[in-house]
């Protein structure tokens, strides 16, 4: 049976749905106290639907790397050129993340320049998975996944505690980045960043599991997605009794749990879109994923800086009071409207064949 060549609509659709979900949870109209729980991150340990979004995106980075690189390697493409192009793209993704944080700092008085971030982690994981995809074989990928997950677990245990601010991940990030992190404890000066440096080790394992899934998909071994996904979920659930799910620390159990769920989602989208011919809902977000995410992040910096956020908040609060409905519904309506706005933008871009690539 021949291998699949080129893009798959199902992966564009899954990536796009993931980006749309990311915009939905990142951009509520009111604060977290007025948000339905599925649209919030777990406070610390645990895993909500929102906690699945970023791991799914990193998993899809791995899937896409397999679909993009393996056909080129089979056709005799230069390994050095493939890796060189991947490193340049990874650097651009990291620099875009830093530029967005700098933009936020310039428009928000008193803000520190945050160095880690979502795009920075995507860039690092893409660079790592590209090296594995080009220079190593699947057996090495599985060895690396085991070493990363078990080794990271060992590091967390060596740190002595998983508590915020004092775990080994936060201590390392504080030592390296100082105040240039997502959160600071005013009392101690300790920092915390959910996209910190040390926890990227486990996030890379998530991306490598996506690389394995993409290889199965290319070779039409889709049953492996179901089996490996189910096994990963069971193993992660058992593991969580010793090492809890924690997105902030990207614990090894969390990495395995979310990758297992992403494998099942990949199988489902492939079955419905590629095999059954369903419409690839979300594709327009998927083919302009970085543009949609970066544009939405920039907009969410401009809106508060311009004073419009206070206006929107006041209107939403007043409407929920006058019409006597749950303010969480008003907050969700704002988030849905934000996603619809960006869907219209990527729809227009797609119709004009504008695809922003880094």
Automatic annotation (TrEMBL):
<feature type="transmembrane region" description="Helical">
    <location>
        <begin position="285"/>
        <end position="309"/>
    </location>
</feature>
<keyword id="KW-0472">Membrane</keyword>
<feature type="transmembrane region" description="Helical">
    <location>
        <begin position="224"/>
        <end position="242"/>
    </location>
</feature>
<feature type="domain" description="Heparan-alpha-glucosaminide N-acetyltransferase catalytic">
    <location>
        <begin position="7"/>
        <end position="152"/>
    </location>
</feature>
<dbReference type="InterPro" id="IPR012429">
    <property type="entry name" value="HGSNAT_cat"/>
</dbReference>
<keyword id="KW-1133">Transmembrane helix</keyword>
<feature type="transmembrane region" description="Helical">
    <location>
        <begin position="329"/>
        <end position="349"/>
    </location>
</feature>
<feature type="transmembrane region" description="Helical">
    <location>
        <begin position="82"/>
        <end position="103"/>
    </location>
</feature>
<dbReference type="Pfam" id="PF07786">
    <property type="entry name" value="HGSNAT_cat"/>
</dbReference>
<feature type="transmembrane region" description="Helical">
    <location>
        <begin position="254"/>
        <end position="273"/>
    </location>
</feature>
<protein>
    <submittedName>
        <fullName>DUF1624 domain-containing protein</fullName>
    </submittedName>
</protein>
<feature type="transmembrane region" description="Helical">
    <location>
        <begin position="52"/>
        <end position="70"/>
    </location>
</feature>
<keyword id="KW-0812">Transmembrane</keyword>
<feature type="transmembrane region" description="Helical">
    <location>
        <begin position="141"/>
        <end position="162"/>
    </location>
</feature>
<feature type="transmembrane region" description="Helical">
    <location>
        <begin position="115"/>
        <end position="134"/>
    </location>
</feature>
<feature type="transmembrane region" description="Helical">
    <location>
        <begin position="197"/>
        <end position="217"/>
    </location>
</feature>
């Amino acid at each position: 049976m021949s291998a699949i060549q080129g893009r798959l609509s199902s992966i564009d659709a899954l990536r796009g749905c993931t980006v749309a979900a990311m915009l939905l949870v990142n951009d509520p109209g009111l604060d977290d106290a007025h948000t339905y729980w599925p649209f919030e991150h777990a406070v610390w340990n645990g895993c909500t639907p929102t906690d699945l979004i970023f791991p799914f995106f990193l998993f899809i980075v791995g899937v896409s790397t397999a679909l993009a690189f393996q056909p080129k390697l089979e056709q005799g493409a230069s390994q050095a050129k493939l890796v060189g192009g991947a490193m340049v793209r990874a650097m651009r993704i990291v620099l875009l993340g830093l530029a967005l944080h700098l933009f936020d700092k310039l428009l928000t008085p008193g803000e520190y320049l945050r160095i880690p971030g979502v795009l920075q982690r995507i860039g690092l994981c893409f660079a790592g998975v590209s090296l594995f995809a080009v220079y190593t074989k699947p057996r090495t990928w599985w060895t690396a996944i085991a070493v990363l997950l078990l080794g990271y677990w060992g590091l967390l245990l060596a740190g002595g505690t998983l508590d915020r601010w004092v775990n080994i991940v936060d201590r390392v990030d504080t030592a390296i980045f100082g105040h240039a992190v997502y959160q600071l404890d005013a009392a101690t000066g300790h920092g915390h960043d959910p996209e910190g440096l040390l926890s990227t080790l486990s996030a890379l394992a998530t991306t490598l599991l996506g690389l394995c899934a993409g290889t199965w998909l290319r070779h039409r071994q889709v049953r492996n997605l179901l089996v490996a996904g189910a096994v990963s979920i069971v193993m992660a659930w058992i593991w969580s009794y010793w090492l809890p799910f924690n997105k902030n620390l990207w614990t090894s159990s969390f990495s395995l749990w979310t990758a297992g769920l992403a494998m099942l989602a990949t199988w489902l989208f492939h079955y419905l879109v590629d095999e059954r011919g369903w419409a690839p809902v979300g594709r327009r977000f998927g083919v302009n994923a970085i543009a949609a995410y970066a544009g939405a992040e920039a907009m969410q910096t401009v809106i508060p800086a311009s004073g419009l956020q206070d206006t929107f908040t006041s209107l939403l609060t007043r409407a929920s009071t006058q019409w006597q409905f749950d303010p969480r519904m008003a907050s969700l309506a704002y988030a849905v409207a934000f996603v619809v706005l960006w869907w219209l933008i990527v729809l227009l871009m797609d119709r004009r064949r504008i695809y922003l690539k880094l």
